[in-house]
Amino acid sequence: MAALTGLEPVTAPVRAPSRPRLWRGAVFLLAAAYFLIPLGASLWYTIYTPTAGVSFAAYGELLTAEGFGSSLLLSMSLAVATIVLALLLTLPAMLAVRLSAPRLRPVMEVVCTLPLVVPPITFVAGLTTSLRTGTDVLAPTPFWATLIAVQNPAFPVVLVLAYVVLVLPFVYRSLDAGLRTMDVRTLVEAARNLGASWPHVLFRVIIPNLRSALASASFLTLALVLGEFTVARLLGYQPFAVWIVTISGSKGQLSVAVSILSLLLIWLLLLAVSTAFSGKERK
Amino acid sequence: MTAQVEFRGLRRVFGKTVALDGFDLTIAPGEFVALLGPSGCGKTTALRCVAGFERPDSGAVLVDGEDITDVPANKRDAGMVFQSYSLFPNLNARDNVAFGLRVRKVPVATRRAKADELLELVGLPSHADRFPHQLSGGQQQRVALARALALEPRVLLLDEPLSALDAKVRVSLREEIRRLQLDLGITTIFVTHDQEEALSIADRVAVLRDGRLEQCGPPAEVYDRPATPFVAEFVGTMNHLAGHVSGDKVRVLGQLLPVDGEPAGTREVDVLIRPEAVRVTPDPEGKAEILAASFRGASVRLRVALSGGEVLADVPGHEALSLAPGTRVTVRLVERPVLVAERTVTVPSPASEPADAV
């Protein structure tokens, strides 16, 4: 049900007769080819030119290009802020619904899955329109004043808010899967019965048992925010994904190099998060 | 460390269902009381009111005379063992037991020692480093029991702690719970729907029905002298035999037996007879015939066809061979005072067997 993130514990392969093993190998090779051949071809394209032979010049040019560091940093900080905000929003809400209003669960599920149905372009169009009319209607309210006060060209809070909405379905699904694996009510009641306050219950009972779900929620958010283009572009900001398109628009080799690099980068990041979480779990 | 618990006019309504409807009960310090009743009778709700997970709509829960109805769950002095496995999956057995002590910021060495001591008490001294998924169901409930006792609560609450376990473990663990409770002298409330469980370990059994107390008394009293027909039906199995009251005696199956307690208003009554109070002897001339026999080891339950009805009888296991289905028999009732209730059956007794008891 939840998206696979590579975080799920891998069960030890069961010994099987050799015929299924043969099949397994074939399927594995097929899948590997599906992923690796285009990737290899792209890599080859970026490092080999008939005139200059093999050279990594494209990558050198990329790393030194203007905006690489700043846009990457922006994307990363947006991702972190989105993860924190999304989790702060969903986890307490989901626990509250489970514990005291189980009948609202379907409602919550629908609300949280809604962003998946709305195309990003529609979402942005709505967002810009409401921001524009919002200025007139909401201007005197403290809410609007706060929103304006926290706006900062170097760190667009509005993007974080938009991303939180976009990642809601993924975060919800991951946490829901995690919460399904345990009897939340009984665990909470057991902890309360032993004298634990609500924060203690949350941090010492729920979160430790929800590690892999939290990790997969963080993952999906990270991957989505790093790759998000439409919203950022239309709102006029330049995180990593927008920068990639801008820089590589004119140069074919460079654009492919950028893709490979970002793939590698995200993969490394996910690997880092995954080892961090599973390391803690083993304890 | 032990306390008196008092339920005073407890009422709790969930939507349209009335879980508790004026429930009154006082439990003496150090007493082991079993709340017994069919599902939905309010027994678990009553327990959860003591633990603080449920707030009564009206009425109060008093511990040692002090009203705790508004005390939050984490400030109450009551250890609870749950029906479902409730150990924290991320902690090993020792840390689970020490959880409450950790919340109270007891030094590490002290709480480790206390946890080990309690694990020894519940018979799991060598399992301290195991995680819940490495323990069997019975072991998990033992650890949960140790965890509930770690804070030396004044009251121990057991919410059907044995219902998820298999039969053999269930029996041995319930005896162990009783032994521990007697050793510690802790006031204990034990919720169960299993009448055998309630009868075998409690000082007093409180039978609930629709959120009210039907009867509360020692197990033998509840079994032998049920206060209401409901208790008679729910605790153990009862035969309903048509009887005819004359004076303070009742004629049933051709025998004249004394009536126990208040005779019913009418002359035509149901006589309530336990299966073990029915004597069955093989007799080629007998009017009754055995329809079925289910062997239970120590005893055999027979379904006996009489003229116009059926009766259930429990006879010792070794008589099984002479009482095979199809055998002609004579049926007699043990000579002792019997309970009567208003007539609910018209024929001489198609025996009913509620909730497949025993």
How are the SSEs placed, and which strands pair?
The complex is a heterodimer of chains A (283) and B (358).
Chain A lengths: L17 H30 E2 L3 E2 L2 H8 L3 H33 L4 H13 L2 H19 L3 H9 L6 H24 L3 H10 L4 H9 L4 H17 L2 H6 L4 H9 L3 H31 L1
Chain B lengths: L4 E10 L2 E11 L4 E5 L6 H9 L6 E6 L2 E2 L10 E4 L11 H5 L1 H5 L4 H14 L15 H13 L5 E5 L7 H18 L2 E6 L2 H7 L2 E6 L2 E6 L1 H6 L4 H6 L4 E8 L2 E4 L2 E4 L9 E6 L4 E5 L5 E8 L3 E8 L2 E8 L11 E6 L5 E4 L16
Parallel strand pairs in B: 3-8, 3-9, 6-7, 7-8
Antiparallel strand pairs in B: 1-2, 1-4, 4-5, 9-10, 11-12, 11-14, 12-13, 14-20, 15-19, 16-17, 16-19, 17-18
Helix pairs in contact in B: 4-5
Q: Would you kindly provide a written description of the structure presented here, covering whatever features stand out?
A:
- The complex is a heterodimer of chains A (283) and B (358).
- Chain A is built from 13 helices and 2 strands; from the N terminus they run H-E-E-H-H-H-H-H-H-H-H-H-H-H-H.
- With 283 residues, chain A is an all-alpha fold.
- Chain A has a domain at 72-239: Orthogonal Bundle (MetI-like fold).
- In chain A, helix 3 packs across helix 10 (211-227).
- The longest helix of chain A is centred in the N-terminal third of the chain and has 33 residues, at 68-100.
- The radius of gyration of chain A is 23 Å and the shape is globular.
- Chain B folds into 2 domains: 5-229, Rossmann fold (3-Layer(aba) Sandwich); 237-356, Nucleic acid-binding proteins (OB fold (Dihydrolipoamide Acetyltransferase, E2P)).
- Chain B has helices spanning 43-51, 93-97, 99-103, 108-121, 137-149, 167-184, 195-201, 219-224, 229-234; strands at 5-14, 17-27, 32-36, 58-63, 66-67, 78-81, 155-159, 187-192, 204-209, 212-217, 239-246, 249-252, 255-258, 268-273, 278-282, 288-295, 299-306, 309-316, 328-333, 339-342.
- Chain B is α+β, with helices and mostly antiparallel strands.
- Mean pLDDT of chain B is 87; it is low at 346-358.
- Chains A and B meet through helix 8 of A and strand 6, helix 3 and helix 5 of B.
